[in-house]
Amino acid sequence: MSEAQAFRLRVTFRKSGRLALLSHLEVARALERTVRRAGLPFAVSQGFSPHMKIAFGAALPVGVGGTQECFDLYLTRYIAPEKAREALEAASVADLMPSSCEYLGNKAPAPSVAYPVSTYLVELAFLPKKGEPGGTEDKEPGRAEGLNKPCVSAELLVPPETVLVKRKNGEKELASADFLVGPLEGEGNMLRFSLRAHASGSLRVDAFVAALLAAHPDLEASAITRIAQRPV
Amino acid sequence: MTDLWPRLARLLAQAERPARYINHEWGATAPVPGTSYREPATPDLGLGASITASGMSAPVPGVYRFCMVYPDTYELGQPNQALRILCKAVNAQEGMSAERAFLPAPDFCDLMRQEGLPLFSLEGCAPLAQFDALGITLSHELVASNILEVLDLAGIPLHAADRDDSHPLVIGGGPVAYNPEPFHLFFDAFSLGEGEESVPELLHEHRRCKQAGMGRADTLRRLALVPGTYVPSLYVGLGQEEAQARGTWLVPAPRQDALSREAPRQDAPCQEAPRQDTLSRDTLSRDTVPVFRRRIFTGFSQSPAWEPCVVPFIETVHDRLNVEVLRGCTRGCRFCQAGMIYRPVRERPAEQIVSAVLEGLEATGYDEVSLTSLSTTDHSQIAAILTRLNQACEGKGIRISIPSQRLDAFGVSMAGLVAGRKKGGLTFAPEAGTQRLRDVINKNVTEDDLFNAIDAAFAAGWRHCKLYFMLGLPTETDDDVKGIASLAQRAYDRAREAVPPGMRGSIKMSVSCALFVPKPHTPFQWDGQIPPDEAMRRVNLLRSSVKYRAITVNWHDPATSLIEAALSRGGRECAAWIEGAWRRGARFDAWSECFNAQTWEDAAVTLGFTPAEAASRSWDTAFIPPWSHIDCGVETGFLRRERQRAALGQTTPDCSFGSCEACGLCPRYQVEPMTQEPRKEASHE
User: Fold this and answer.
1) Which among A26, A52, A223 is the nearest to B313, CB-wise?
2) For A33, which of B13, B45, B311 is closest by C-beta distance?
3) Which chain B residues are closer than 8 Å to A89 by Cβ?
4) What is the pLDDT of residues B110-130, one digit of tens each?
5) Shortest CA distance to A160 belongs to which of A195, A210, A220, A219?
6) Of the four listed, A214, A232, B66, B348, which is most buried by Cβ atoms within 10 Å?
7) Hey, are the CB atoms on B51 and A32 less than 8 Å from each other?
8) Model confidence pLDDT, tens digit, residues B73-91
């Protein structure tokens, strides 16, 4: 089979800026089209409905960005990683940009399960009060850069015991401790923590942050970014 | 221009699909000419880069800004060809930029109103009210209420008469503009026909008027001189009786202020184009109403078939590369408006189409291409085009699709060329159930054509087939309705014979019925629509006549078809009706889950207007319809002749395959059909 001989290229990319608002499916479609535009010799599955041999990493929720996201692309011939990166870069939109490429053996775990531990960085901002200009016409919120930004308090570093998550078959309470890896850390208006995915499921980072901020109605997460992914 | 992005971004967490509103797709143009989105939008690599960062360059003063608006959501509007073509044409003009705008989903419209956020363009996230001009494309009658939703959400006065120099010029275009009268209150001007050349001309003239500091009234009079432009406020509507006596529904409006004495500048592009026949500075002041000719893009065949386009992030209705292979169709189906208003047939050369597809696929990254037109399999070089594309795309996982299937074995063999191993469904449109009625409507296909097509399709491996019919066509009887059932059942029998015994269980056949909606500029423009209860009786007759359980029957809701019919042939009285319905909550009427017939009924009652009567009235062919001042190229005499031939059951051949049928277009517009090779009817073996 051609798959056995295919060259497996792991591409690291970022999902940033307003493109953090793309869903996982939208990112996947956009990346497939990027690969086609880049003119890389991608492998095509041999099934009834032939499609590109590509495997995506763990999904990010809508609204969450990432700086170290990845996908695996199977090529029919060897292309120097740097050349592949350049081709992808030229075919990418600014906020969905590849940063590196490397070849992997075919036995390496799939990108969706290879890195169960994700580290997130959350930027906190004050919610504009009703009637205040914060975020209204002509004005960049830019509160993070301004003087008026919140500081992570000790109180914010205490994780909520449980997080209520909505699923297709109703609501479910998840215990934070089952997913948190290490403590919450704060610096300025930035909050950092790591969550671990289990085979049985994971805790959505946006749900975790919402629970964390539930007791702070003046605060909002102005950006949530996955900054690292690693094995357990 | 104001950048609304920071305000919009805060609301996107509540949007059903934020990607509808975020712009920055591959191929999106920057709102400032000469810049690009590929320059890092978010230079700070990630560490908490906020979604609300605008990443926009400051607008350059002095640039003329145009926004193309599709009055429905992104998913429906982004694939629209007019939007793409006109944005491209305007962006190519020196000192002009074009942006896109769509109506947000209903919930998000409400949220924006609640938050006081006005409707915005995608590229610059700028309020629509701040543009120099808006182009709203009118692709079907049911967008009527959405036009008002667009204007209201944008904070632009609904009525052209209430707009002043600070408001954008609001231009309408598209097939529905061929009867602009129901919309006359809402638009400053209509651009009739193909806009590749006329829209830039119109905008250049508008820019000159603005630069000269001309007032709105004078500006509109100047714009009326650009060929293909109709400015409804320059005319007053007449009642039906007077209209029939005078031979026109309009008279020039009394002059409120003197037309500027300044002579038109000679460097204006509109001066180089042919002028509107009877329209000149003098006639504007006299007691005559000119005939407004549509524009035809005569350079179509030579123009590039591939032009850079936007590749959406979200899945849209036609989420693939579209390459327009030919324009116009002269098969002459007597109910079909597209077959009249896009004449003459103009084919692009095979060579150009093939290279456009390959270039387009490479540049966009799409894995599917559709060869679009009204009748792609009629292209004189279609077999060569498909064969070459097949070879070129081999092994790349590319799908090639043809939007409409010609109803014969040739159509099937063309579909077979591109289907590969994956054969979805095939769609055929016999339109009527009996040969008598097919002759009446000039659908030049026979039962044998359909059966040959079915034989070929099911033998080649297809298992699903959809048959399109129309109910309520002029002269239809119960026998014609039962004929649909009979035809479908016999088609099913043929399909069974063509399929090996073990696989017959997988055969699926469906019958889809639309209700006949009379359209302006067609031979059936004088014919009424059957009332909704009669339509339902015929639907039920059809359902009870279909005895095979394997054949499913689908039909359109007659309530929406009634609104379409009342609007499509309506006059100026419809404008108040549209507005009344919108004020009662009508919007997104083309979405069955949003359509509320009550809003339209209540609005009609208040006005003493009876839509059912408007939809169902039939006129003698001597009747002057409310759109008689709009010239689509095909002469009324031809339409009358075709209506008479219909009554006699006589068919009329397609002029692109043989002799001229004298529709009147070519000599008057100095155009002619342009096929790459002589077209040949496929033999029926």
Assistant:
1) A26
2) B311
3) none
4) 999 999 999 999 999 999 999
5) A210
6) B66
7) no
8) 999 999 999 999 999 999 9
Residue B487 CB contacts under 8 Å (≥ 6 apart), including other chains: B430, B433, B434, B447, B450, B467
pLDDT bracket for residue A139 (50, 70, 90):
very low
Q: Which numeric CATH code is attached to A2-113? A: 3.30.70.580
pLDDT in tens, B609-648: 999 999 999 999 999 999 999 999 999 999 999 999 999 9
d(CA A62, CA B541): 49
Rounded to whole angstroms, the Cα distance separating B681 from B178 reads 31
Strand order in the sheet with B189-191: B96-102, B64-70, B133-137, B169-173, B189-191, B229-230
ipTM confidence score? 0.90
- Chain B residues inside the 8 Å CB shell of A47: none
pLDDT score, position B281: 43
Average pLDDT estimate for B146-174: 98
CA B108 to mean position of chain CA atoms: 25
Full DSSP string of B654-673:
-TTTSS----SHHHHHT---
How far is A124 from chain B, CA to nearest CA, in Å? 9
CB contact under 8 A, A35 and B363: no
Angle at A150 between CA A147 and CA A151, to 5 degrees: 110
Report the residue from A45, A95, A135 with minimal CB separation from B7: A135
pLDDT tens for each residue of A61-104? 999 999 999 999 999 999 999 999 999 999 999 999 999 999 99
> Which site among B52, B108, B399 would you substitute to test the A interface, given the most A Cβ atoms closer than 10 Å to its Cβ?
B52
All CATH 3.80.30.20 domain ranges of chain B, comma separated, are 308-573+609-669
Count of positions (residues) in chain B: 685
Contacts of B47 in chain A (CB under 8 A): 67, 121, 190, 225, 227
Partner-chain contact B397 A44, CB within 8 Å: yes
Residue A49 contacts B where some CB pair is shorter than 8 Å: yes
Q: Quick check: B638 and B664 in contact, CB under 8 A?
A: yes
B50–A50: do the CB atoms touch at under 8 Å?
no
Give strand ranges (E) for A58-151.
64-75, 96-104, 117-126
Place of tokens 């953090």: A20
Phi, psi of B471 (to 5 degrees): -100, 150
Tokens of B14: 């509540």
Q: Looking at the domain that runs over B308-573+609-669, which CATH code has it been given? A: 3.80.30.20
Which sequence spans correspond to the domains of chain A?
A: 2-113, 117-230
The answer to whether the beta carbons of residues B460 and B669 sit under 8 Å apart is no
- Our CA-based measurement puts residue A69 at a distance from the nearest CA of chain B, in whole angstroms, of 12
